[in-house]
Every structure is written in structure tokens, then in C-alpha cells.
Amino acid sequence: MLRNLLLDWSGTLVDDLPPVIGATNHVLERFGRPPLTRDEFRRHFRLPFTEFYAEFLPEVPLAELDSLFHHKFVEIQDEVTPLPGLGEFLEYCRTSGRRLFLLSSMRREHYEVQVAKLGLAHYFEHPYVGILDKRGKIGEILATHGLERTETAFVGDMIHDVETARHGGVMSIAMLTGYDSIEKLTP
What we know:
Blueprint: E1 4-7, E2 14-15, H1 17-30, H2 38-44, H3 49-56, H4 62-76, E3 81-82, H5 86-95, E4 99-103, H6 108-118, E5 126-128, H7 138-144, E6 152-156, H8 159-168, E7 171-174, H9 182-185
Parallel strand pairs: 1-4, 1-6, 4-5, 6-7
Antiparallel strand pairs: 2-3
């Protein structure tokens, strides 16, 4: 029985693709690159996101890209919405005694704004946010909280999330609600 769920935030619990694509296109256009359509973004984006920017803007320091992206994202993050059925899912997990943790690359300050706006913080035992490479964190989370691998799953929407689950030796549940297409999730 699954007693513990590690959950990604972006694309798994909330739809933040519109503001993420908007902020990414702001960065690309700032350096004279054409904007990406939603399909192009989903085809190229990957975690750790440093690899994505190394492909599109290898000459620009990551700190500069990060600053430009987050400045724009703050302006438009009100567009983030919960995915359909999120409230019912979280309530079911709570009432059935499942432990919920977040494991996300999202910056802490953005997560805090969004989780407060949506009123969801009380569902999560611990938010691990700002984790660029989740594969390096999952083992620590399992050990710190005494989570049995056979009773734990990682739920995410990207191939990086599937790889993270494998790396941690837990079940992987891939969602088609976010960043990666079915083609990327089923090699």
C-alpha cells in the first residue's frame, strides 16, 4: 500500500506552464532569440533547467538568466492555477492517512506565494523546494522521514521525476498534466 507520496509541484499539482513559458520567452527575447510555442517549450525543456539554458543561451551566465526569468515570473505568477481535482486528491490523501511531501525545483519564494494563495500548505509534511537535481535529494528525504521504499511513490510530470523515483528505489507515477509529453515519458 502506498503510504507516502513525494509530489512535484509544477505541472503535477498546479498548472504554471503559461507564466513559466512567458518568463522563459521574456529571457529568450531579451537576448534576440525567438519565443517558443507551448509545444516547442514542452519538447525542449528539461531538468535540471541549467541544461535547457545551456542549449538555448550558452553564452549568458546562469545568474543573469535566473534573475531575468524570476523578475518576470513574479509579475505573472498569478496565472498559476490548481489542476482539476487537486483539492479532492489532497483531502483524500489527508483523510486516508497518507504522508505528503513536496520535491520541486521551484524557487522557495515562488512556492510560498503560490501555496499561500491556494491555501494548500497544511497538506504537506515538508516542502523540499529549490532542488535543481531531485535525484540527489530523494535518498535523504526517505532516510530523514523513515519512509519505506515499498510504501512510497514519487509523482511528477517530467522524465527527471521518473528518473528521480528510480534513483530512490520508489514507485514512479507520471502525470500527463504538465511539462513532458507522453513521448518523453515513455521511452
